[in-house]
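Fill-in record for Glycosyltransferase subfamily 4-like N-terminal domain-containing protein.
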Amino acid sequence: MPYKIAFLSKYPPLEGGIAAKTYWLARGLAARGHKVHVITHGVSAGREYRIKNDEGCPPSTPNLWVHQPPREIPWHIPEDDEYALALLDLTINVIRAHAIQILDTGYLIPYGILGHLAKELTGVYHVVRHGGSDLEKFLKRQVLGTMINETIARADMVVSNKHYQALLEPMTSQLVCQPAYVPDGEAFTPSDAPRPQLRLAVIGKINYYWQHKSLHFIADIMRHLTGQFECWVVGQGKGMADFQ
């Protein structure tokens, strides 16, 4: 039976692993006949972490709609963009307008917390997902801890992995651990066309703390493989100059 699903998450044109996973999961569910709505605010991200000339998923994708809040919020004191509140307001409207059955949030800050508030206001089934940095920077240090703890404890399902199972098990009885993410084979299968030299590519954002993402190891490995592979790095971010 097809479901009506909403994703509140990072999503292209926002870069990064969470955005990529949300993109492919939303497309995969839409391709299987589910009605999928994506609520995001990628256009407000800094230029260094936004895909150039991309406003998200192509409009021709069947069963998939992308919603973004207004880009301008009326000026007020204290001055703030209020994107979190704009996302929450939009999420509630999408849930009610499209009779959403499942709200899937893909990073605790702010999406998971906003999803929890939307659940409390609408009663929608709430699935919480996380990355790595939100658990390391926020949950473990209890930054915004009260809201994060409540979000996890009251979620209808918390999707994680074996690495964080011990951390999350005391917080929720609705924990589901999934295997590692696997990209869509139809999109990422190499062609059979012969090439004089194999190509090795690293694609992604390059943060100012890029060493913490193990990119320095990748750079060293690629240096040693230049005779065997044609090595490509496709990315952008505040750490690009140092990485180069």
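KEY FINDING: The mean pLDDT is 85.
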